Amino acid sequence: MNEIRVTLPQPSVSYPIKIQKGLLEHVGKEVSEMTTSRRVAVITDKNVDLHYGDQVKRKLTDEGFVVSMIVLEPGEQTKTFSVMSTVYSQLIEAGLTRSDVIVALGGGVVGDIAGFAAASYLRGVSFVQIPTSLLAQVDSSVGGKVGVDLPEGKNLVGAFYHPDKVLIDPLVLDTLTDHYFADGMAEVIKYGCIQDSSFFMKLAELKTRQAVMTEIESIVSRCCEIKRKLVQQDEKDKGMRMLLNFGHTLGHAIEAFYHYESITHGHAVAIGMATLTEISERQGLTEAGTTKELRRVLKTHQLPAELADLTDYDAILPYVKNDKKQLKNKLHVVLLEKMGNAVIHQTDGDFFESLTLGGQKP
Ligand SMILES: NC(=O)c1ccc[n+]([C@@H]2O[C@H](COP(=O)([O-])OP(=O)(O)OC[C@H]3O[C@@H](n4cnc5c(N)ncnc54)[C@H](O)[C@@H]3O)[C@@H](O)[C@H]2O)c1
Ligand SMILES: [Zn+2]
Asked: Which ligand lies nearest the alpha carbon of 44?
């Protein structure tokens, strides 16, 4: 088993991220270790419930827990206040008290909403993250950001609230669709880009999903390790943690433009990383050849490097300028000086202006 410990000074937080194939079989014992309570609510979605709900419930019941399953509709539209209120009601109905535990079993949507429920229900209860999508295993389950969307935009309400444990079983990725596997790979590739060129080179050599799965424990561990380091340096996202936003300013704009429907997060981030790197390479801010290398690795992992219709960039630009991280027309973009080495570059909304020329070509 690989174990990574996240430690934050104020308020004092310390919890393990455990990564092991087959860990789901031990979920009963793992939850049992962290509490004397014997009541738990498992929040999941219908897809994940179908594959793993019974197993998780059985393992917890075997340890003497009374288990309530709260099963949500899959998809981003679940991350809303109206769903939150139904979750609170079900937690009350389940008789969950402050000393009991919430288990988040699912992708980033479940992790974010269940984490926010854990942060706010009875002013906070213990919770365990069991991320089941690749994106959730390498990204959203680590770092303590939880929350929901508003009609005005994504992730606009939330909290920093850390789990007591993160349990990662990479075997559950076997039931993920190819689309969502690729989606998570975009974040995996991002870690190589921003912090670790040899990790990036390794990803270049793993040509298929099967090949990635042979190395999956070490891949997920490396990503969690990089995220842990950046979160520990900058929990509240005011400095180094911003490096994790590589490709995201443009990625978020693309997601918003397509109403969070036709392009999912990882695919939008892939386009964002490649497009931004092309712009910064053209401006001499990024080592020559980096864009080509990045595009090749994205393609290997079934990810796009550009929009299907380049003329859409015209309409996407206003969304970039609306980014919540942009203050007084100052824009902080994360770019690569070279592969494995990201920096925060202060610029303005015009940085992306060349996109209006109909895509990446000058
Ligand atoms: N909190 C953070 O720091 C953070 C970071 C990144 C992203 N996020 C959030 O994460 C969300 C995206 O996460 P996501 O991509 O995991 O989306 P998701 O939770 O919608 O999961 C993607 C799809 O895969 C299905 N699924 C999940 N695990 C499965 C499995 N093992 N087998 C079969 N199907 C499975 C889900 O039912 C869903 O249909 C967004 O809401 C985003 O804002 C949060
Ligand atoms: Zn992301």
From this structure: 1
Q: Cβ contacts of residue 25 below 8 Å, gap of 6+?
A: 55, 59
Whether the Cβ atoms of residue 231 and residue 143 lie closer than 8 Å to each other: yes
The CA distance from 8 to 34, in Å, is 19
d(CA 15, CA 163): 7
2-175 folds as: Rossmann fold (3.40.50)
Q: Ligand 1 pocket: which of 78, 133, 231, 255 to mutate (most atoms <8 Å of CB)?
A: 133
Question: How far, in Å, CA of 318 to CA of 58, rounded?
Answer: 50
Tens of pLDDT along 302-344? Answer: 999 998 888 888 888 877 866 655 555 678 889 999 999 999 9
Residues 181-200: tens digit of each pLDDT: 999 999 999 999 999 999 99
Q: What is the DSSP string of 291-343?
A: HHHHHHHHHHTT--SS-SSGGGHHHHHHHHHT-TT-BTTEEEEEEEEETTEEE
Check if the beta carbon of residue 240 is closer than 8 Å to that of residue 159.
no
Indicate the domain borders of the chain: 2-175, 178-357
Contact partners, residue 20, CB within 8 Å, separation at least 6: 1, 2, 168, 169, 217
Name the closest-CA residue to atom 20, ligand 1.
75
Q: Which atom in ligand 1 lies closest to the alpha carbon of residue 134?
A: 16
| Distance separating alpha carbons of residues 50 and 207, to the nearest angstrom | 30
Question: For atom 10 of ligand 1, which residue has the closest CA?
Answer: 108
Tell me the whole-structure pTM to 2 decimals: 0.94
d(CA 279, CA 1): 41
Measure 346 CA to ligand 1 centroid, in angstroms. Answer: 31
For domain 178-357, the question of CATH label 1.10.760.10 is answered with no
